[in-house]
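Extended Data, panel c. Modelled sequence:
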Amino acid sequence: MSGRYKVVTDSFGRAEIHTAFALDTRRGAAQHARFVFKEELPIPIDADLVTVLGAEIERNREAAKRPGSVAAVVGIDPKNWSLTRIMLTEDEPDSELAGVAYEVLYLARPELDALPPATGR
């Protein structure tokens, strides 16, 4: 243990750390991310997780095929039992893209090209 996080805890206390797991990540055909869309959805308590997660993976693969898509990601937050959908796109916000839109000023891309393409399984 290096103790580097001690500076944070001394200043702000012990922060809650949010963890999510990626269910599926896909690279789209576009190259320059101008916007990111983030959508969070609760998973109903009575939902069949296998069905819900399988449908989200398929939905994510289709989203990555959308024209203008740079990447699509879907993750699960097991603490709050919610899904997080993230879409990086060249397209400006419109009625087809759900979630909160953010303009991308800089995107670090160290693993982006290593993502499986939208067309593959």
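DSSP finds two helices and five strands in the chain. This feature is highlighted in the accompanying rendering.
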